[in-house]
UniProtKB/TrEMBL annotation:
PANTHER family: CYCLIC DI-GMP PHOSPHODIESTERASE PDEF (PTHR33121), SIGNALING PROTEIN (PTHR33121:SF76). Residues 120-360 form the EAL domain. PROSITE patterns: EAL, FHA_DOMAIN. It comes from Zhongshania arctica. Coiled coil: none annotated. This is EAL domain-containing protein. It comes from the Bacteria. InterPro entries: Cyclic-di-GMP_PDE-like, EAL_dom, EAL_sf, FHA_dom, SMAD_FHA_dom_sf.
């Protein structure tokens, strides 16, 4: 045989075969001793899936398993052709399909053994599922200051605590989006952040985020925020919505209305990073506009084009009764320029780096 398909896993453990060579087809995969490839995991059915060859193609069929088979993160309902590079999940067990050239026959059994994985195979769905189930996240706070230098409030920033994953929210959301679990991760960060903020006795305005996908399901989002408000009636909350998430003005206006009934403020985040759409300011006006770091960093003196642009935007927004906040203030020069413009609040490393929330 000059070409052999095989499945490889990055999951450690004696019960999870690292490599399943597909040289004797068809074969069944499951936790039963009758299966050609045995995966000793309670999440798998006894006979979970079958892999066979049809017209030279590798085909995966789910055998009415409880937790399903997935190809590139989509659950399959019918026999599905596989190609090199596909990510295959049997329940939560993850494999990568590859091809090996010039494989010599060894015996009549399906061969299962250790092999180095390709560098780009690093989705780590098992670890991510553990992070969600065990709530392995923590929350940091970014300080927001007033014109006079007093602390105005804090912003919640999530971090991961799983030993097998990075702590960066950017990395975690990349994994979450590949698994279509970005909303679950956003909810977890938010819920843990509220609990830690309440334990710490934070009584100043507390800014918190959402994932843009959550704004596409406003009813579900508002139910979530209603539940959280009931759980944490004493927190002074400000809900941040990214400019890119405001695609439906009518839906945003409804969210604005419901937030008011919940006594939750509204801020538009990263304003100016994209189109800086102004219509939303009249149709669904926020309490605070957060100017994006791209407008603030290296703003220069009063004669620079960026200074004039930010000054004009700040004047327009404040005349509408909306307070303003400069994001990403990292130098004294930028701080002085933003104060001269008359921006209300400031946030960035010049005023303090994120720190873990700790109880009083």
């Amino acid at each position: 045989m000059d070409k052999t398909y095989y499945l490889e896993s990055c999951i450690a453990g004696n019960d999870i075969p690292q490599r399943i060579v597909l040289d004797k087809l068809p074969l069944t995969i499951g936790r039963s001793s009758d299966c050609a490839a045995i995966i000793n995991s309670s999440s798998l059915s006894r006979a979970h899936a079958r892999i066979e060859s049809r017209n030279g193609k590798i085909v995966l069929t789910d055998l009415a398993s409880t937790n399903g088979c997935f190809v590139n993160h989509q659950r399959i309902e019918h026999a599905t052709e596989l190609e090199k590079g596909d990510i295959v999940h049997f329940a939560g067990i993850e494999y990568y399909l590859n091809i090996e050239e010039d494989v010599e026959e060894e015996d009549d059994r399906t061969r299962v053994f250790m092999q180095p994985l390709p560098k780009h195979f690093a989705i780590k769905s098992r670890e991510f599922t553990e992070l969600l189930e065990q709530e392995l996240v923590t929350t940091f706070q970014q300080i927001i200051t007033c014109q006079n230098g007093d602390i105005y409030g804090h912003e919640l920033l999530g971090r991961g605590k799983h030993p097998g994953l990075g702590s960066s929210p950017y990395e975690l959301f990349k994994i979450a989006e590949s698994l279509n679990k970005q909303i679950e991760l956003s909810v977890l960060f938010r819920r843990r952040g509220f609990i830690q903020a309440e334990l710490a006795g934070i009584d100043r305005p507390l800014f918190f985020n959402c994932h843009p996908e959550e704004c596409h399901k406003p009813d579900k989002l508002l139910m979530e925020l209603t539940d959280l408000r009931k759980l944490h009636p004493g927190l002074d909350l400000v809900f941040e919505v990214h400019e890119a998430a405001i695609t439906n003005i009518d839906a945003m206006a409804e969210i604005r209305k419901e937030l008011s009934t919940l006594n939750i403020g509204l801020a538009y985040d990263d304003f100016g990073a994209g189109q800086a759409r102004l219509r939303e300011l009249t149709e669904a006006p926020p309490d605070i506009i957060k100017f994006d770091i791209s407008l603030v960093r290296g703003i220069g003196d009063s004669e620079s084009p960026r200074y004039k642009l930010l000054a004009s935007l700040n004047k327009l927004v404040q005349e509408m009764g909306i307070r303003t906040l400069a994001e990403g203030v990292e130098t004294e020069q930028d701080s002085i320029a933003c104060k001269d413009i008359g921006i209300d609040y400031f946030q960035g490393y010049f005023y303090g780096r994120p720190t873990a929330i700790t109880p009083d």
